[in-house]
């Protein structure tokens, strides 16, 4: 993929993630996260964090997006992920420092990656989305344990 195409995909995913983050349910941390998954057919599946009054039950944006893709029968079809996040002020997330997926989300995304038989590109941005980092999931979660270890997927 050349840089221009990659930039365009990253921009589209980051914009979709920013839009999703507007719906974050994050009254406890006040930290809004949005995730957008690029699917093999070019469509986008989004998720946002969904906190719970019993704090430990909170769900991250990437996990919600992956579960949503799975619910649509499309777990194997994820190609790339865009993630944004930042502290909310006046109902809007702020910040320029890119956020990277937490450890649990890396493992959840790895489930989708191995089931689909492809590594995922992960674009990480701050809430304001103007700059981003590009990673491979295999670099964020090296030597991953996954469905392949149980003889499933790929
Ligand atoms: N969060 C995500 O949604 N994704 C991550 O990868 C890191 C953290 C959420 C969880 C919680 O609602 C808030 O950000 C602060 O940790």
Q: What topology emerges from the helices and strands here?
A:
Elements: H1 3-21, E1 31-39, E2 44-48, H2 61-71, E3 78-89, E4 92-94, H3 103-116, E5 121-126, E6 132-136, H4 137-140
Parallel strand pairs: 3-5
Antiparallel strand pairs: 1-2, 1-3, 3-4, 5-6
The structure holds tetrahydrodeoxyuridine.
Tetrahydrodeoxyuridine binds next to strand 1 and helix 2.
Catalytic activity: cytidine + H2O + H(+) = uridine + NH4(+); 2'-deoxycytidine + H2O + H(+) = 2'-deoxyuridine + NH4(+)
Pfam families: dCMP_cyt_deam_1 (PF00383)
Keywords: Hydrolase, Metal-binding, Zinc
What does this structure look like?
The protein has one domain: Cytidine Deaminase, domain 2, CATH 3.40.140.10. A hairpin with a 2-residue loop joins strand 3 and strand 4 (92-94). The model has no long low-confidence stretch (mean pLDDT 96). The chain is α+β, with helices and mostly antiparallel strands. It has helices at residues 3-21, 61-71, 103-116, 137-140, and strands at 31-39, 44-48, 78-89, 92-94, 121-126, 132-136. Helix content is 31%, strand content 26%. The structure holds tetrahydrodeoxyuridine (THU). Tetrahydrodeoxyuridine binds next to strand 1 and helix 2. The site of tetrahydrodeoxyuridine has 13 residues, from strand 1 and helix 2. Zn(2+) binds at residues 60, 102, 105. Residues 8-148 form the CMP/dCMP-type deaminase domain. Belongs to the cytidine and deoxycytidylate deaminase family.
């Amino acid at each position: 993929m050349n840089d221009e195409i990659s930039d365009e995909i990253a921009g589209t995913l980051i914009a979709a993630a920013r839009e999703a983050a507007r719906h974050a349910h994050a009254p406890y941390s006040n930290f809004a996260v949005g995730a957008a998954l690029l699917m093999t057919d070019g469509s986008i599946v989004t998720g946002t964090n969904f906190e719970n009054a019993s704090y430990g039950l909170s769900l991250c944006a990437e996990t919600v997006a992956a579960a949503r893709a799975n619910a649509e029968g499309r777990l194997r079809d994820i190609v790339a992920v865009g993630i944004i996040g930042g502290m909310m002020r006046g109902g809007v997330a702020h910040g320029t420092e890119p956020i990277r997926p937490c450890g649990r989300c890396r493992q959840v995304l790895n489930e989708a990656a191995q089931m689909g038989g492809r590594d995922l590109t992960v674009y990480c941005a701050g809430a304001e989305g103007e700059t981003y980092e590009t990673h491979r999931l295999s670099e964020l979660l090296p030597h991953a344990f996954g469905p392949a270890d149980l003889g499933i997927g790929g």
